[in-house]
Amino acid sequence: MKSKILPFAILLCVFANAQEKEELKENVKAAVTERFPSTRFLDFQYQQYLPTDFDSELFDKAFEKGEIKNHYRFNANSNFVVFSKPRWSVTTSLNYKYEAFELNDVENVAGDAIAPYDKKVDFHYLSATLSFTYFARLFNKPFIYNASFTADGSEKDIERLKGFIGATIILKKTERTMIGVGALIFIDPASPVPAAPTFMMEHRFQNSPWIFDLILPQRLLFHRPVSENGKFSIGTELNGDGFYVYNNNAPGFADVYDYRILELRSGLTYEHHINKTIIATFKTGLSTVFNSRLSERGENTNDYIFSTKQDGTGYFNVGISFMPDFKKKKN
After folding, report:
1. To 5 degrees, how large is the angle CA 307–CA 294–CA 46?
2. Signal peptide location in the record (predicted)?
């Protein structure tokens, strides 16, 4: 199972640093924040899922089934530059997430005589990331190094320290096409793989407003401008998410577990620039969960004790972002 850091790390390392030198870094920053709302100075997102059925396994044996009647998530992100020079920069990212599930008619199928029940569970997740990026050239092509280190946890405690080191080279850059490749090395014992390759391609179709946007394995999108201040996108994105779960004195279990979800979201996105500072976002489509597993904190994700499967369901997302210009005006 891919860890939840994989898609996030790819979009940061591969796309966020696609150029070099000070005059080009600003163009890259604008491209990144345009594509990924969570990388903006301030970003707030609310996501709502439609009801869906689920079933679960505990230690590879049937455990419970029922309905996820209500599932919603709120995310708040802040990103800012700590230091910036022509060839390198240090940035910080802060994230807070609240996620809640309302379960209905949950039935134990493991043979225990437990009556069906309803339950609401919610979780808080917090993280802080420090990233260092260095811009260089290799074979006369833009080459970028990136190292990021994250501390995350919940409202109760800091649970883990992890990170990744990556590099990206831009193989082709023309007026209409950009192609890049890279690699990531994970500093995380819970990651199912120690390293991963990446591939990026952006292509503007000739005599057309449409743009093809591919980052493997994270996204495949087609987007185009709508009026002067809007942008419409259609396609598929791979998203990782998760939070920490605490043991309520159940014997035979660890104190802290890591719950991770990997889902494919396919659908439509519309973004609108309300003004130069404020951007509104709306997404809707189909969510398909591939992996939903619980493993002991710090253990490899493949060594899970609990897993769930759920039917595909609809979702929508609304968000608002703020991108103020902190540059001082020259006299």
Report:
1. 95
2. 1-18
Determine which helix (DSSP H) or strand (DSSP E) holds 23, and give its type and residue range: helix 22-35
Which amino acid makes up residue 164? F
What tens digit of pLDDT does each residue of 223-260 get? 999 988 999 999 999 999 999 999 988 999 999 999 99
Cα separation, 188 vs 152, whole angstroms: 13
* pTM of full prediction above 0.70: yes
Contact status, residue 242 vs residue 125, Cβ threshold 8 Å? yes
91: part of which helix (H) or strand (E)? Answer: strand 88-108
What is the token pair recorded at 61? 């044996």
**d(C-alpha 138, C-alpha 145), whole Å:** 11
Handedness of CA 94, 191, 29, 144 (dihedral sign): positive
Distance of alpha carbon 35 from alpha carbon 32, whole angstroms: 5
pLDDT digits (tens, 9 = 90+) for 194-233: 999 999 999 999 999 999 999 888 899 999 999 889 999 9
**Which candidate, 217, 236, 283, 290, places its Cα nearest to that of 260?**
290
The amino acid that residue 102 corresponds to is E
**CA distances to 39, 131, 279 from 43, in Å:** 8, 18, 9
Contact 110, 58 (CB under 8 A): yes
Residue type (1 letter), 330: K
- Residue 330 DSSP code: P
